[in-house]
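Before surveying the methods themselves, let us examine one representative protein, written as a sequence plus integers encoding its fold.
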Amino acid sequence: MMDPVIFSIDILGLSLTLRWYGVLIATGILIAVWVTAREVKRRGENPDYVWDGLLWVVPAGIVGARLWYVANATLGGSRHYIDNPAQIFNVPAGGLHIYGAILLGALAAWLYARHYKIDMWLLLDAVAPALLLGQAAARPANFINQELYGPPTDLPWGIAISAQNRIAPWTDLGLYPEASTRFHPTFAYEIIWNVLAAVLLLWLARRMGKELRPGTIFAGWLILEGAGRFLVEFFRPDQPRVPGTGISITSVVTALMALVGALLLLVKYERVRVPFLAPGETGYSLAPSKAAPKVPEKKRRGKRKKVRK
């Protein structure tokens, strides 16, 4: 098994640790931004807006990811953050949730797009496949940390989980020997699903780009991300449950995502009507370009040279 810590050094009494978890999340963010910038450019918009927007979206996404994780655990019955509120800020200890990052990051992106008059549907359609690829790039961190695994399996791709990283009831090494017990790699299932879904959305955007209405690719992301994660949740016994049920909170969220995506598609193609959601335009609008500074006529023409006869 790989060590989750790449290196750790002490400087002036402070311990600085670089972990694979952070490196892979940063890699996933960069991949998502790069793909988004390419998709934005392909639709005729200035990709610089994407890179400049990082200052708005990334901090909001990190805060959202932590708050969602804390809320998810608390709603699931855990009192850890209620009894130890200071631990809410202990991000290095672990605990980020992708949907919190997407939710608060999307809010920051909406404010940014509103400020610079960027078409939000263009931005959402561009970022949809990029999010899937970014998630896939970051998921190997779960393997390194030995987390987000499923129940025991005899399948050839099952992975070993050390005793200190197991959750009940698989902590009983008499029933589940460390040397022979293997577990479902649920993070790998999600990686495969995300890559296939991203390829499908990118293919649709290129093959049928002129026929697709703004918001179609984003709606496809809602459906594919929601359905894929809903299925993976059946292999995730570690996830907080809705109190009194065997259903994870994330399962409820992802089912709603898929339903919202399907409804959005129906609205966009005018199969159903929703009072607060209009079908919208059939094409994207581009942000107004910054006006170039006016050059005085004399300076623009320059001085005329006298010609000797």
Q: What stands out?
A: The radius of gyration is 24 Å. The chain has a mean pLDDT of 88.
